[in-house]
Amino acid sequence: MKRILTLIVCVILALAVTTVSVSAEEIQSAMSSLKVRIASESVTGDLFTTYETAETLKEDIPASADSLNVNAKSAVLMEVSTGKILFEQNKDDKLAPASITKIMSLLLIVEALEAGKITKEETVTASATAASMGGSQIWLEEGETMTVHEMLKATAVASANDACVALAEHVAGSVEEFVSMMNARASELGMKNTVFVNCTGLDAEGHLTTAYDVAVMSRELIKHEMIKEYTQIWIDYLRNGETQLVNTNKLARFYDGTTGLKTGTTSQAGYCLSATAEKNGMELVAVVMSGSTSNERFNGAKKMLNYGFANWCVTVPQIDTSLIKPVKVNGGKEDCVETVTESIKPVILKKGEEKGIACEVKLCEEINAPVKKGDMLGSVTIKLGDSVIGNYKITATQSVDKLTLGTVLIRLIKSLVGL
């Protein structure tokens, strides 16, 4: 009996050692034969760490940006509503982005949906090009059809390259045209250090971006609430349950407030992540580029998010609306003109600083006609101590023409006849 048990243990150990040395292609081939196929980001990366416990994401709340130490080549922490950088580490270094490239792909797809160019319900047919994609995939076959909704889910949740290419072709007609659209959109967003060569993030010469640029496009994508329907999914299925989608972003399960967004792993890029989370009315983007291990990127992002939520807050300065009064108009057809201020934008401050905000209102006492709608009649200055953190115009809400002799005569006649 002992010999039998010893033999069983030896076989198990042998299988374990063999599994470690199996190539990515062999694992993908074996997985594709399973009835339930698990779509994964990287066979050599996240496949075997998807179900790690929350304890692997270490708790760490730095008290200051100086104490943040992200184990990666580059990192950025950005607040979404203002775009303010709260932490940076080599933010403009050009690096391979792996699948966080798909943030731009997803942005173009969501924008196409919201513009009515495509719908979630319409059918997408996989081309030979889409079916031939390697890396993360849902094993599309040439001619296989899925809805935009299903392809979008596969791209956002499981980082499926084949689904991403199929959507790119569906939106733009070809991958090449879609990549041109990606670069044009990047230029519009001010992503000065980014060049996209493909829509998936597979390693390619010249396919580079920066942590800062990734934060910029992440900020733009996460503004679309639609994408959160996908990026907050932990586990889902396609093909009537035959293909399982597991979110490559472990923070979706293990970090409270996570809203997204995208992971990426290749041999050239290392371990990358753009993580978004929202708490107490503030949403942050934490970007990690070229992390040394899968867990390090998640720990690095979590560390930045913890720092942001613990030390910063977003507030909208309040002004005394009673000070935004009508302005007297001299020589006008109307005696006064109503005024309005521009919308006050939110500001991000260190916690506690919001109590020191002061608003200074300056408004003309009177103005000579004529007055045009939109004419500046005053200003609101938002200050924090001696620093100005916001300037806003006070403008006329309507036009007031100059009083003419004819108008004066008409008014005089009306008053004489009692009208």
What order do the helices and strands come in, and which of them pair?
Elements lengths: L1 H20 L2 H9 L4 E3 L32 E8 L5 E5 L12 H13 L8 E3 L2 H4 L13 E3 H11 L2 H12 L2 H14 L22 H12 L2 H7 L3 E4 L4 E4 L4 H4 L3 E9 L3 E10 L2 E10 L2 H18 E4 L11 E4 L5 E2 L1 E3 L5 E4 L6 E7 L2 E3 L7 E9 L2 E10 L8 H12 L3
Parallel strand pairs: 1-7, 12-17
Antiparallel strand pairs: 2-3, 2-10, 4-5, 6-7, 8-9, 9-10, 11-15, 12-13, 14-19, 16-18, 18-19
Biggest sheet record: 5 strands, antiparallel
Low-confidence stretches: 1-37, 40-56
Q: Class by helix and strand content?
A: alpha+beta
Tally of alpha and pi helices: 12
Number of strands: 19
Brief summary:
The chain is of the alpha+beta class. The chain has helices at 2-21, 24-32, 102-114, 128-131, 148-158, 161-172, 175-188, 211-222, 225-231, 251-254, 294-311, 405-416, and strands at residues 37-39, 72-79, 85-89, 123-125, 145-147, 235-238, 243-246, 258-266, 270-279, 282-291, 312-315, 327-330, 336-337, 339-341, 347-350, 357-363, 366-368, 376-384, 387-396.
